[in-house]
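Try this one yourself first.
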């Protein structure tokens, strides 16, 4: 990339420059290789590529230069050796499990993870004999007690969705390593711009690129980052089973990464202003945002993160009817379950993202009927507050 090893550049520089390879056309922006396969100069070269004697592209299920640029850039941003891109965040989690687990193995997972992650463990991986235990995110004794001889992975999402609880990554990684397990961190809510799990001992980082890496709500994609050797079976699974990232989406994510640091700072500043204001509203019972001194893990968030991100949850008086009225009353916020977009979004977790889990599980995870999750976008914070204020009047 320049005159020193890539790892020594700052994150802002890597976001814009890392991994770019120019073609003979000398293009300024990263080229989009929208091709399913690649041609060979002759039969001998084809044979050498297939045997792996000669590096190079073969077929876009597992070798595409645009996807590779995205992988290299994200690996450098996270401070990991290697990245394997996938067609979605869920495909990244599935690929990690398929690569590292076999029938009889066990995973300990924080209970307030992304709803579909819960479904993946409960409904699909269990079919193949992969067992799991869900534990409260911040109860480290529960993590340790849940570990069995068959446990291979500790899977954690921090901050959690939707309650923004913070896990101590160093502490969990230490527990994992003491029991010969790997620690896996879903870094979707903060991205490498605000949190670097490898610095705290994590072994694998997972992304839904759909969220902040894109940042503008356009494409679905995912990624796994980790050590070169550790990721070899993930690459092998994607190559064989095909949950691959499309080159077009990789190209969109590359454009998203260029503004990642700026966006995450702006999301964090606006979210802090909105969360602080929400705390003062009489119809709001409770606000969950790690940037507020009232958040139970505020000090940990300060140590572990470079910022607090754009996700806020809050509970209104009056349960589901009031929550739905507020959601129906907003004019700027989009009613959608997606997050990490330049456009602010609003959702009711109990009846959307977390509807599949049982009411008991929801209660245990603290997802009440009056809970609302917002993803603060890049609009003006005063406009967002005014929008919430007029909607709060209707409940
Ligand atoms: C969205 C999300 C996922 C799943 O990603 P997809 O790209 O939707 O498959 C996983 N983890 C978290 C924290 C998410 O927000």
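Now uncover the answer:
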């Amino acid at each position: 990339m320049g005159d020193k090893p890539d790892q020594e550049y700052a994150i802002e520089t890597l976001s814009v420059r890392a991994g770019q390879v120019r073609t003979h056309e000398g293009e300024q922006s990263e080229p989009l290789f929208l091709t399913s396969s690649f041609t060979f100069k002759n039969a001998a070269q084809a044979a050498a590529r297939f045997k792996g004697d000669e590096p190079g592209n073969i077929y876009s299920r597992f070798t595409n230069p645009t996807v590779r640029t995205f992988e290299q850039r994200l690996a450098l941003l996270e401070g990991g050796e290697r990245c394997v891109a996938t067609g979605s965040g869920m495909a990244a989690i599935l690929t990690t499990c398929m690569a590292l687990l076999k029938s009889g193995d066990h995973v300990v997972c924080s209970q307030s993870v992304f709803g579909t992650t819960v479904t993946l463990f409960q409904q699909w991986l269990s079919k193949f004999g992969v067992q799991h235990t869900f534990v409260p995110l911040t109860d480290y004794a529960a993590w340790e007690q849940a570990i069995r001889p068959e446990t291979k992975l500790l899977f954690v999402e921090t901050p959690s969705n939707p309650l923004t609880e913070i896990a101590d990554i160093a502490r969990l990684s230490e527990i994992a390593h003491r029991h010969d397990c790997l620690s896996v961190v879903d870094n979707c809510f903060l991205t490498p711009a605000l949190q670097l799990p490898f610095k705290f001992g994590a072994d694998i980082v997972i992304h839904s690129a759909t969220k902040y890496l894109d940042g503008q709500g356009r494409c679905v994609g995912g990624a796994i980052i980790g050590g070169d050797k550790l990721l070899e079976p993930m690459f092998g699974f994607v190559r064989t089973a095909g949950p691959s990232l499309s080159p077009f989406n990789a190209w969109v994510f590359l454009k998203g990464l260029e503004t990642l640091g700026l966006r995450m700072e702006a999301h964090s500043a606006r979210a802090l202003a909105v969360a602080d204001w929400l705390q003062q509203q009489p119809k709001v019972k409770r606000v969950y945002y790690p940037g507020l001194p009232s958040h139970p893990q505020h000090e940990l968030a300060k140590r572990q993160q470079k910022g607090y991100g754009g996700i806020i949850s809050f509970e209104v008086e009056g349960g589901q009817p009031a929550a739905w009225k507020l959601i129906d009353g907003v004019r700027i916020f989009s009613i959608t379950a997606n997050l990490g977009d330049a456009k602010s979004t609003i959702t009711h977790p109990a009846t959307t993202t977390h509807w599949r889990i049982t009411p008991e599980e929801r209660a245990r995870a603290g997802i009440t009927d009056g809970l609302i999750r917002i993803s603060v976008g890049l609009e003006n914070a005063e406009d967002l507050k005014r929008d919430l204020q007029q909607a709060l009047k209707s409940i």
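Discussion: The pocket of pyridoxal-5'-phosphate is lined by residues 88-90, 114, 116-117, 157, 161, 186, 188, 208, 210-211, 220, 222 (CB under 6 Å). The domain at 261-392 is CATH 3.90.1150.10 (Aspartate Aminotransferase, domain 1).
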